[in-house]
Amino acid sequence: MFIDKARIYIKAGNGGNGAIAFHREKYVAAGGPDGGDGGRGGDVIFRVDLGLTTLMDFRYKRKYIAQAGGDGMGKRCNGKRGESIVIRVPRGTVIRDAETNKILADLSDPDKDVVLARGGNGGWGNAHFATPTRQTPNFAKNGQQGAEREIILELKLLADVGLVGFPNVGKSTLLARTTKAAPKIANYHFTTLEPNLGVVELAEHMNFVLADIPGIIEGASEGVGLGHEFLRHIERTRLLIHVVDVSGIEGRDPLEDFHIINGELSKYNLELERRPQIVAANKTDIIQDEAAFLRFKEEMQKRGLPLFEISAATGKGVEDLMKHTYSALTKLPPIQVFEPEMEIDVPAAADLDDAGFRIEKEDGVYVVSGSWIEAVGGGINFSDEESLQYFQRALKNKGVIDGLIDAGIQEGDTVRIGDLEFDFVY
């Protein structure tokens, strides 16, 4: 089954917590603090796999979580760094933020990995907090939370040329004749239910990628039939070959079909209407309505569109069509790569030394949030006086106390930081 869109949840690993430990050794009466730092959490990395052609794997697994960093240990031993998770996707996968629908990355380069969620930094062990006046700090910092988000994966095929047209006009036959692709071919509508790719090789260093896009019908831009499930696959193509059945065997008017397909392309994406087109008048070996064919040819001449009279079944005119296509491609810019529309690191938690915080009032409780303040609060030992004093100084030095006062807090009001709740005393 061809799957070209998926929604998944990703989360980087949390940083390990810093350790509270003290040096213990025979004949050493009072060893100092030697708690190590927590390890950094693993990242979530996306990588192009040229062996993949669909997003099928994401139909069965929708949550991807990297490993957390190890906690710090005594003797200043730091925690182990969490292993990153590598998610492999087909070439041409565009990744969007599920909340904003903005593009985060375009996985088109097989040699370039993209880190989409960064692991949290490890917390500091109590060895960091020793001072001449505080020689036995009984507290440490917790690790930082890893970044998390929901994302949408969209596969937009990377092909130089896209074959478009109504169902059963001969696109699959043309692809099979010009490439080594083996699409399913039969004499009924919607034989092609998924895009097919093939490489047209004219000579050494003269080749291009050709995509057979499933047949478009009237109303496709609104989702009728296969709709925009597959229209997205021609967004990147540099050139379109519009295959039209001019035989008249099914009683269709080739000129009307031509107008309908172009109308659907423009409704889906205005840029597609302006995409260079070559018209392939197919099934010219079995024409039943010469008058309709002549009207069609005259209209193409008026529009200034290159017209090739071909028969995909017999091979008539196909070689000339492919040579002209290659020549046209040499004059066009390279395949479009979508630029990110928002920074990947936006939702990532801030560094442990970052002083940023927010104060909001919820049901009479003053909630203080922010990566720095939550990390500090999570490592406080409320049964230890030095730990409490450190916490109070940190709140004052970073401006949290002044921020609470500006927000209108009164003595005795409740303050919440992460999972901690306490009464405000000034």
Can you describe this structure in just a few lines?
Helices cover 20% and strands 22% of the residues. The protein is an alpha/beta fold and 426 residues long.
Helix content: 10-25%
Poorly predicted regions? 188-192, 223-227, 346-354
Our count of helices gives 9
Number of strands: 18
* Mean pLDDT across all amino acids: 83
Strand order of the main beta sheet, please? 10-11-9-12-13-14
Radius of gyration: 31 Å
Secondary-structure-based class equals alpha/beta
Principal-axes geometry comes out as: elongated
- Report on the biggest sheet: 6 strands, mixed
Give the terminus-to-terminus CA distance.
65 Å
Run of helices and strands: EEEEEEEEEHEEHEHHEHEHEEHHHEE
Percent of sequence in beta strands: 15-25%
Protein described:
The protein is 20% helix and 22% strand. It has 426 residues and is an alpha/beta fold. The strands form four sheets. It has a six-stranded mixed beta sheet, with helices on both faces. It has a five-stranded mixed beta sheet with strand order 3-1-8-5-6, with no helix packed on it. The protein starts with a strand and ends with a strand. Residues 188-192, 223-227 and 346-354 have low confidence and may be disordered.
